[in-house]
Amino acid sequence: MFGLIGKMRAARGQRDAVIDVLRETTGALPGCLSYIVATDPADADAIWVTEVWTDQASHKASLQLPQVQAAIAKARPFIAGFEFQVETHPVGGVGLPASEKS
Amino acid sequence: MFGLIGKMRAARGQRDAVIDVLRETTGALPGCLSYIVATDPADADAIWVTEVWTDQASHKASLQLPQVQAAIAKARPFIAGFEFQVETHPVGGVGLPASEKS
């Protein structure tokens, strides 16, 4: 599996607008096992996104999907920047489809 | 919902031993919606854990469960330290039980 943990910063006051776009878009992307959007109680403009994909190719392919391209275009004006991103290799746990548990 | 994103460092060469303990323990903890364990391709002794709980009280209570206390005791000799931890407030996404999606 392929994972990403990232923190993005919304333009002041636009956090919830970005979150709405993220949540509208990620319902059924091929290969997406987990995509959790969170606010940060210590940082009002921050958004944490933790992702698990079947593999890196699925993630990369998702960025080319029309609905994802549209979401990126829609959210871009509300995003000030990306502050943190780490790639991970998820190995298991709770909250993944049963077939991916090893 | 209550979330945690954390990075722990295993003692040299003990990463997989720690992961085994984490995965054995988190199967069915009350209030645990997601608990994903991942390795870090850029850091051989690192373990990333991303957690989602129904609320902070569920997470706190889990630390007192006998199986969790036993796991902490079992893993402690293999853990060198905790390098990063952020508390989040998950608001939704893919990979959470349907009842928690809002």
TrEMBL record, chains A, B:
Transmembrane segments: none annotated. The keyword ATP-binding does not apply. GO terms for molecular function: monooxygenase activity. It is an enzyme of class 1 (oxidoreductase). Pfam families: ABM (PF03992). Keywords: Monooxygenase, Oxidoreductase. InterPro entries: ABM_dom, Dimeric_a/b-barrel. Residues 2-88 form the ABM domain. This is Quinol monooxygenase.
